């Protein structure tokens, strides 16, 4: 990674090596009510999020990647406000979440038209703003099959990545659907050096992570603190095992907060949990301080730098 490679943040470009400790898969402003009919995954109050992000900064955090995209009701201008109030860098994503969240008009768009839209968000600005996306994702699919429009979105993301050099991240819960996502992305020309299969820690079979890593793609253990999926102790042990097998340079960690009950203000873990509670568990599992710095700083800085054109 070139130290002077600039990364699009919501307040402008920042050298990748100045991004500090990064949580690469988060949500700050998100609204899923129209699909879920529940207020649990509705985070719309910027001043509340300022308090949450301030706790992350106080714990040593520096950068958050907000992967709130079409279907999740992104609001990049609120991200600017949160960043200004806290001093934390925020990187905005672009893309389309997954089928049940898609706007109706997306189903009639060609791969080329979707590609054009993604590229414009990266090079010109997100809709109605001059705020440039610095990430493509999170791009989701159904958990057991990939629908036709989901496939086109993945293909378009690969094409947009090739044009811009911006990294891609996916949403792949529970099953081995990430392998199917990877197959589509790779066939469409995605650069696996800057492609992430997300939520790998929601599949407790470590061989799934190995299958992905052997193909050269990044994996994200990004459900840290979500104990309904697996314990943090097991996550830490799995990461330690994969590091021992030589995969340190392809692992990312984050908390994927998108629910009110997970905010510290409502009694949840908050974004700081990864730093204050999970990193000690990594140490207890045998991960060194130097390796922890790679997981939390070097790796996310490297992939966010991408391979920009």
From TrEMBL:
<keyword id="KW-0479">Metal-binding</keyword>
<keyword id="KW-0378">Hydrolase</keyword>
<dbReference type="Pfam" id="PF02126">
    <property type="entry name" value="PTE"/>
</dbReference>
<dbReference type="InterPro" id="IPR032466">
    <property type="entry name" value="Metal_Hydrolase"/>
</dbReference>
<dbReference type="GO" id="GO:0016787">
    <property type="term" value="F:hydrolase activity"/>
</dbReference>
<dbReference type="GO" id="GO:0008270">
    <property type="term" value="F:zinc ion binding"/>
</dbReference>
<protein>
    <submittedName>
        <fullName>Unannotated protein</fullName>
    </submittedName>
</protein>
<dbReference type="InterPro" id="IPR001559">
    <property type="entry name" value="Phosphotriesterase"/>
</dbReference>
């Amino acid at each position: 990674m070139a130290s002077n490679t600039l990364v699009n943040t919501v307040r402008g470009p920042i050298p990748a090596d100045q991004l500090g400790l990064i949580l690469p898969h988060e949500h700050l402003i998100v609204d899923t009510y129209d699909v879920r009919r529940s207020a649990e995954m509705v985070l719309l109050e910027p001043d509340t999020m300022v308090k949450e992000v301030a706790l992350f900064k106080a714990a040593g955090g520096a950068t958050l990647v907000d992967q709130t995209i079409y279907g999740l009701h992104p609001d990049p201008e609120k991200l600017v406000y949160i960043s200004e109030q806290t001093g934390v860098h925020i990187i905005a994503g672009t893309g389309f979440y997954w089928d049940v969240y898609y706007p109706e008009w997306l189903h009639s768009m060609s791969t080329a038209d979707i590609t054009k839209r993604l590229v414009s968000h990266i090079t010109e600005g997100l809709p109605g703003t001059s705020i440039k996306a610095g990430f493509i994702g999170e791009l989701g699919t159904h958990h057991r099959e990939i629908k036709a429009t989901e496939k086109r979105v993945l293909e378009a993301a690969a094409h947009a990545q090739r044009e811009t050099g911006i990294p891609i991240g996916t949403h792949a819960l529970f099953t081995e659907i990430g392998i199917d996502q990877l197959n589509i992305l790779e066939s469409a020309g995605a650069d696996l050096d800057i492609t992430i299969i997300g939520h790998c820690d929601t599949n407790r079979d470590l061989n799934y992570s190995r299958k992905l890593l052997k193909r050269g793609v990044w994996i994200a253990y990004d459900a840290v603190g979500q104990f309904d999926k697996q314990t943090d102790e097991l996550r830490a042990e799995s990461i330690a095992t994969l590091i021992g097998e030589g995969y340190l340079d392809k692992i990312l960690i984050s908390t994927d907060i998108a629910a009110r009950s997970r905010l510290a203000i409502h009694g949840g873990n908050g974004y700081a949990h990864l730093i204050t509670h999970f990193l000690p568990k990594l140490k207890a599992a045998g991960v060194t301080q130097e390796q922890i710095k790679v997981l939390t700083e070097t790796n996310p800085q490297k992939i966010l730098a991408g391979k920009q054109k």
